[in-house]
Specification:
Layout (H helix, E strand, L loop, with lengths): L1 H4 L4 E7 L12 E9 L9 E3 L10 E5 L11 E6 L7 E10 L15 E6 L2 E6 L9 E9 L5 E10 L3 H7 L8
Antiparallel strand pairs: 1-5, 1-7, 2-3, 2-6, 4-5, 6-9, 7-8, 9-10
Length: 178
């Protein structure tokens, strides 16, 4: 894990889930990354990356995308290049959301949903959404700069009962303390 302590470089977020049973509408999940400015790390995102989009500078983009879960292994993949991300940004929050096009669905309704985050050969996170099974969206990770400017990873499993648009506004908020 020495690469983590030196600061993160290129990180991959991978998502998989089983397709819908025959005759049922497709289940569509997305990876989402929201990037926050250094002068407002908990405000509105400077930009959001999801399917069919990428960051303005190309440092965060989707490598694979699925609208059905069909395929082998991880069917959705996002790449974040922290070693190239401008110093204007201090925080990136990553999550997954279930599209609600065909009725209300939670992670409990999605068979074998699984997400992993890796940097090179180091697995930073593996999660099956069990902690947030009653949610329609979830954050999974927060990446932030430390005092030296190096990027660090923090697990951040938080469930939301939101549609994709509302989730974008909520995902980077400061967690409520009990």
């Amino acid at each position: 894990m020495s690469s983590v302590s030196k600061g993160l470089g290129k990180v991959e977020v991978k998502l998989q889930w089983d397709p819908s049973p025959l005759g049922q509408p497709p289940r569509h999940l997305d990876i989402i990354a929201a990037t926050y400015l250094a002068d407002d790390p908990y405000g509105q995102p400077a930009y959001v990356v999801h399917y069919d989009s990428r960051s303005p500078d190309g440092t965060i983009n989707m490598r694979r995308h699925s609208q059905t879960g069909q395929g082998f292994g991880f069917v959705e993949e996002m790449v974040l290049e922290f070693d190239r991300l401008s110093s204007a940004y201090a925080r990136v929050v990553v999550g997954a959301v279930i599209h609600q096009d065909h009725g209300h669905r939670t992670f409990d309704d999605i068979a074998n949903a699984r997400l992993v985050i890796v940097e090179r050969y180091t697995q930073l996170l593996a999660d099956d959404f069990a902690q947030v099974s009653a949610s329609t969206a979830a954050t999974v990770a927060e990446f932030s700069r430390d005092g030296s400017g190096a990027w660090e990873f923090q697990e951040m499993i938080r469930g939301f009962d939101s549609d994709p648009a509302a989730f974008l506004a909520q995902m980077g908020s400061i967690p409520r303390r009990p």
